[in-house]
């Protein structure tokens, strides 16, 4: 028994039935009665359900229901009321899951050397492919296509390394190159960070109210997934701006200065081999004795990953840029400190200072040379690890986190 086209709005169709003049409404339309629409719809629903059950009751051995689920159409609620018979290998009740099930079966049969099962699954896939079902033809299976090129993606360009990309390259070269070539979706965490950075750059950072207003004025630009998420992030603004303002006030009390030109200080320095290191430093702090401190503002709630020996690679790149004379007004030989400032870090001390640069400069330069070679290469290494599961990491890369269709 096949019941085809079980679409919402088609079966059940709740449009009230009746005669042209609505004679069927006379019954319920006495004084004080409502318009009877709800009752009429309930009656129609009962009729539709009765017809559906009657159709099912004529089945002798099996019932096949078909429906389409798409952006425009939904299956009838009657479909949800039927408990499907599970398929022997876990169930396929759509073409998509049927294809996945057959692919899984074919791959397992091939691994087990079961020729008979393999040829059955392959024959079924061939039929589906001939009918144009997506994913059935092996030509569409990801990973089976030949490598289209072994050339560098941007063979004509020099490598431009950015300090912020060094750690993501360290974490996973594949995620890095995808992010670079395809761009990341960013997300509201990155958007929030941009707004906070701009507020600190363009406003009086010692004034918590001014910062709060500047961030609040642009908060509506962020696309939050839910209102509770927006409310939670908005609630973080006041404590965060109070922490930032307190930091700058204490800095001023200690005699340190931050010049306007030292906020978002841009640099571009040439490295050996023709590559360039480009970026901008959130701000530079000048001590009364001449020491310069590079500060990177992080608006996340946790400490970013760092290299086991070199510490935070982004800070190291900033220090190297200064040492190579990349920042106007800062002599290359200046003693540089480096600090991460994390106003939302869930612990009392919000600043994390890096170990002295001089001790690691040589190793960092060697590391940077390797990173530049990797960025300019044609082979990229995937490193599946915990970072793959971080919601906002790597432009939300999930290549090796989502199970293969065949598993
Ligand atoms: S899932 Fe993980 S290992 Fe795979 S490309 Fe993305 S970040 Fe790299």
UniProtKB/TrEMBL annotation:
- UniProt xrefs under Gene3D superfamilies: 3.90.320.10
Domain named PD-(D/E)XK endonuclease-like is located at 161-388
Record's InterPro entries? P-loop_NTPase, PDDEXK-like_dom_sf, PDDEXK_AddAB-type, Restrct_endonuc-II-like
Q: Which keywords label this protein?
A: ATP-binding, DNA damage, DNA repair, Exonuclease, Helicase, Hydrolase, Nuclease, Nucleotide-binding
Q: Indicate whether DNA damage appears among the record's keywords.
A: yes
Q: Which residues form a coiled coil?
A: none
Q: Is Transcription regulation one of the keywords?
A: no
Please give the superkingdom of this protein's source. Bacteria
* Record protein name field: PD-(D/E)XK endonuclease-like domain-containing protein
Q: Could you tell me which species this protein originates from?
A: Agrococcus citreus
